[in-house]
Design goal:
With 243 residues, this protein is an alpha/beta fold. The protein has a single domain, classed as Decaprenyl diphosphate synthase-like (Undecaprenyl pyrophosphate synthetase, 3-Layer(aba) Sandwich). Helices cover 41% and strands 15% of the residues. The protein has a 6-stranded parallel β-sheet with strand order 3-4-2-1-5-6, with helices on both faces. It binds farnesyl diphosphate. The site of farnesyl diphosphate has 18 residues, from helix 1, helix 2, strand 2 and helix 3.
């Protein structure tokens, strides 16, 4: 493995982009791109787990993605459903993974059966420790911060908190990613160089890596490339350059 011996980012976040273009290039419908994208998601989870990444976060469906056609939204929801059913099935056959799953994003507005499956998958995997996987569904970074701010507001209203007691730590603890380290590396394939409302708070000191490859073509070797590029960066967190 080309990344043997290098220090790994503890938390990698990935914007799975380019599914539509991948399908179009092949004369296929967009949903075929998402289907292939979901396979690549599984493959990258397995590979990241093998090499020892502790936290992996994927952007699967944003709050803005509801604007897509009913058929496309339905197809992405079906892929999620399938993944959740498959996870249950594999566990029943004792072939479950060591992943602890967390769905980040608003449950409101999601199909009720998927919310049930997501809650159940989180509960069943709660004692797993090998690798944490976050799947962002109905997720928006600004909405996440607003949600946390409202919770703080409620605590103040109840007299449990004073406004001056609001700290970065207190707000972080109310985000969907509470208790997890911030991402060290954010990867966006498909040539786009935007954050698109992903992990807005958590990305404050993240390193960004962009790649032209479309997500359905993304391979473990592409992940290695991103990790190698990350390893060469000098992370200063606002301090001075290391000697
Ligand atoms: C962005 O590509 C991709 C999405 C909006 C959907 C991603 C969802 C999946 C890969 C399936 C998720 C399923 C599981 C099990 C996690 P795009 O459609 O915007 O691509 P384009 O920019 O080329 O049009």
């Amino acid at each position: 493995m080309p990344i043997d011996g290098i220090s790994l980012p503890q938390h990698i976040a990935i914007i799975m982009d380019g599914n539509g273009r991948w399908a179009k290039q092949r004369g296929l419908v967009r949903t075929e791109g998402h289907k292939k994208g979901a396979e690549v998601f599984r493959k990258i989870c397995r590979y990241a787990s093998d090499i020892g990444v502790r936290y992996l976060t994927f952007y699967a469906f944003s709050t803005e993605n509801w604007k897509r056609s009913k058929q496309e939204v339905g197809a992405i929801m079906d892929l999620l459903r399938n993944y959740l059913f498959e996870m249950e099935e594999r566990e029943r056959e004792n072939e479950g993974s060591g992943y602890r799953i967390r769905f980040i994003g608003a449950r409101e507005g999601m199909p009720a059966d998927i919310v049930e499956l997501m809650d159940a998958a989180e509960a069943r995997s709660a004692d797993k420790t090998h690798m944490h996987i976050n799947i962002a569904v109905n997720y928006g970074g600004r909405a996440e911060i607003v949600h946390a701010a409202r919770l703080l507001g409620e605590q103040i209203k109840a007299g449990a908190l004073q406004p001056e007691e609001i700290t970065e730590e207190r707000l972080s603890a109310l985000l969907y990613t509470a208790d997890q380290p911030d991402p060290d590396l954010i990867i966006r394939p498909s040539g786009e160089q935007r954050l698109s409302n992903f992990l807005v708070w958590q990305s404050a000191y993240a390193e960004f890596y962009y790649d032209d490859v479309l997500w359905p073509d993304f391979t473990p070797e592409d992940l290695d490339k991103a990790i190698l590029a990350y390893a060469k960066r000098d992370r200063r967190f606002g301090g001075v350059q290391s000697q």
